[in-house]
């Protein structure tokens, strides 16, 4: 059994839903354990106190590519 850690970053996060057009970020075998890091607050990050914003989350908010923004929510350019 393998244990995986999937970190949230601009290459692993997708916003708003799922898309068959995105390549898999991680492939696991039956019985593997997976920890998945997530963030919430993308749409309100500009209103959050600075001490709540990690460098990784800010990078996602500022640099998430448009093709990873797959939902119908607000999008940033």
Report what the structure shows.
- With 77 residues, the protein is largely without helices or strands.
- Helices cover 12% and strands 10% of the residues.
- It contains 1 helix and 2 strands.
- A two-stranded parallel sheet has the order 1-2.
- It is globular and about 40 Å long.
Gross morphology: globular
Q: Distance between termini?
A: 41 Å
Overall mean pLDDT: 88
* Class inferred from helices and paired strands: little secondary structure
Strand coverage percent: 5-15%
Strand order of the largest sheet: 1-2
Strand element count: 2
Largest sheet: 2 strands, parallel
- Number of DSSP helices? 1
Instruction: Specify the helix fraction band.
Output: 10-25%
What's the order of the H and E elements?
Answer: EEH
Give the low-confidence spans.
Answer: none
Q: How large is the radius of gyration?
A: 14 Å
Quick tags:
two-stranded parallel ribbon; 10% strand; 77 residues; 2 strands; 1 helix; single chain
Summarize this, please?
With 77 residues, the chain is largely without helices or strands. It is 12% helix and 10% strand.
What layout of secondary structure does this protein have?
Elements: E1 3-6, E2 33-36, H1 55-63
Parallel strand pairs: 1-2
């Amino acid at each position: 059994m393998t244990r995986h850690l999937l970190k949230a970053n601009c290459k692993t996060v997708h916003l708003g839903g799922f898309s068959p057009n995105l390549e898999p970020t991680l492939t696991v075998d039956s019985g593997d354990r997976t920890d998945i890091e997530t963030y919430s607050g993308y749409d309100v990050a500009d209103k959050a106190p600075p001490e709540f914003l990690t460098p990784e989350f800010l990078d996602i908010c500022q640099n998430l590519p448009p093709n990873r923004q797959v939902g119908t929510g607000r999008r940033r350019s």
